[in-house]
Fold each of these.
Amino acid sequence: MTRDILSMTYDELSQAFSAEGIQGFRSKQVYEWLHRHLVLSYDEMTNLPKQLRETLKEKFPIITCSVVRKQVSKADGTVKLLFEMQDGDYVESVVMKYKYGYTICVSSQIGCKMGCAFCASTLGGFKRGLTAGEILSQVYVAQKEIGERISHIVLMGMGEPLDNYDNVMRFISLVTDEKGINLSMRNISLSTCGIVPKIYDLLDKKLQLTLSISLHAPTNELRDKIMPVNHKYKVEELLAACRKYAGETSRRISFEYAMLSGINDSDECAQTLASKLKGMLCHVNLIPVNEVKESPFKPSTPERVERFVSILSKNGINATVRRKLGSDIDASCGQLRRKEKENKSEKEGDK
Ligand code: SAH
């Protein structure tokens, strides 16, 4: 039996090694190579005997990703990486530089089934969830590629993290493991379109991560139209879960709100939003929607966005407009993967 070693916790790895008759101290060495030195090839693990490396290659393959394209924004240094997974499909990550350090936005699935009307990730179709090791490898390979320490992670790339719950939880425990890369739980944000039962599961774990909710509309009438998940979990249920989450963890919830011109950016929407969030420990992040070729939505004007912020603020809701990074390099979800797929099929069509 072969086992994907990058997805294994330290205890699992030790047990598996011992079951194979591999000496105990080797587990520590291998785990540190992988998760502390980010060495993703047995041949580079120089303190392992050659014979052992061969055994490990065969029994415990390192399933990782490779960089197939790198785009660097001239405007702000944002780096967009397109990774090829071992099964030949693509995922993308974006590395952004902030005052407090480097943040990576990772993907949790190949494609997405959530169907949000404005999002490019949905257009390419859903393929599969990524393993914990595949999510982790985006962080490790990116860190090596840019040559800088990545200190913050946002699960805001392609896919719905709570639709790949077990693998994402495993990823989070590996990336915060003090024997490994040891990121602070507080530096991790998980973004969801609102799979309510999973928000309660997450709450039970009492993690100190930041929960981001892609709300995008304050009423069921509107949210039903742009986010199919709302047919299943209504705005009220979602916000009740959020209130409980913020109350019990004392962590501020971050609400994402993509401003779609003429759709969800009216004064009335701002007022309704403010009244529904009243008294919750939260923050609203307004994002003028990134235009996606196949979708009809246009970003709200800067004046509209400003007016929206001022209504929220007047009603006691903290709101900011997200700085747009990497807009010259298609740095929003799903866009690069789609381009790559289009290029590939054009090339195949040429043959
Ligand atoms: N599935 C998760 C995480 C991935 S999406 C979620 O829904 O939260 C990351 C964020 O980008 C979400 O808030 C999503 O709604 C938003 N988004 C998707 N397409 C966008 C676009 N074209 N313009 C602006 N934001 C977009």
Amino acid sequence: MTGELPKLVLKKDEKTAVEVYLHGATVTSWKCKGKEMLFVSKNAVFNGVKAIRGGIPVVFPNFGPWELGPQHGFARTETWKIHQQPEKDESGNIVAALVLEDTEQTRKIWDYNFKFLYTLTLKDDEFSTEVSIENTGTKGFHFTTLVHTYYNVDISKMKLRGLHGCEYIDKVGGGEKKEEREALQISGNVDSVYKNTANELLLSTGDHEIRITKENLPDTVVWNPWIEKAKQMSDFGDTEYKNMVCVEPGYVAKPYDLRPAEVFKAKQTITCLC
Ligand code: BG6
């Protein structure tokens, strides 16, 4: 299923490792204490063209439908370069970095110069993805970005805490709402953009707990396609909605304005509390 696309492996030991494809800088595996934390569809396509269905695709420079180019932007389908091969740092963590800069192809869609540096750090029970977006051109630009993290869960037991009191855009039911639930449970199609969420969320997967912390990513998208939408996706199994949830920290509710020579920095850290 995974084909021959190039990838990097960050490995601490047999039970602690991460895999990331240069295609879309998509992380497809985070093993912590021997357990796979991320969901990747059994129908995911690894052909170097289509975005990989699962793991952590990078959304940039646009979240959602885009009048200039593909939904969720081009970062998840471009081939990234290796900036730093996986290496042990002085604390014994494994660090690797990928980079994407504008090309003739990206400028045809979106005529701006940028350098997106994506740094991955693997610790014993923690994995972080750091975003650094530099405007390397002479014109300012607006963007939205998001780390589209797919988790392995048992949806009948999953609970997500930390969104209580937040305003959200309900992309399924329509309109803006306020989250009244202390713990979110999912039993239908959910596609919600929560605004100004706390920097710490807690995901109970039905097997273990994952703490999600984020910096400079004010919003959080929660997505599960459920039965009908699952059937419409060619790269997603009909019943896989039972095994996944996306909790996606991002800068998406309003675009970020990046002036020439400025750098936007943000980070997601996920910690397994199992
Ligand atoms: C979520 C969006 O982030 O991604 C959903 O909020 C979308 O609207 C989902 O359906 C998956 O998108 P795609 O393009 O990977 O099918």
